[in-house]
Amino acid sequence: MPLSTADRLDITELIARHGHLVDAGEFDRIGEVFAEDVVHDLTDFGLGTVTGLGLFRDAESAPGVVHPVGHHVTNTVLTALDDDHVQARSKGIGVQADGTTGSVVYDDVVERRAVGWRITRRRVLARRAPLTA
């Protein structure tokens, strides 16, 4: 059940597309990245879990929410779970308008659907402190 090169490229591009859509404010296109029934776990930020695209769009575009000016994703590692499910783990870097940055880990489950690959579960984990010896 190894992933094909085409599937690896499609999934990596899917994960990268999130930042482009959010940074451009194109929340109406978020279904190009996430499944309709996505579970978006933001518990590490004290925001609980958001289920479904409607709730996700509302949370992303809510007044008073301060978004980074840039969402950047890197170091994506893919592990096939079966022919239609992949575990994806990526590093995320958020750049704020004042130049400060933050780091997260995206822990995703990606599923092959009729419309193509979609993220069905995303857990976002904040990296708040460096590792120490």
UniProtKB/TrEMBL annotation:
Q: Which Gene3D superfamilies match?
A: 3.10.450.50
SUPFAM superfamilies listed in its UniProt record:
NTF2-like
Q: Describe the location of the SnoaL-like domain by residue ranges.
A: 5-123
Pfam families named in the record: SnoaL_4 (PF13577)
The record's listing under InterPro entries reads: NTF2-like_dom_sf (IPR032710), SnoaL-like (IPR037401)
Q: What is this protein called?
A: Nuclear transport factor 2 family protein
Organism listed in the record: Cryptosporangium phraense
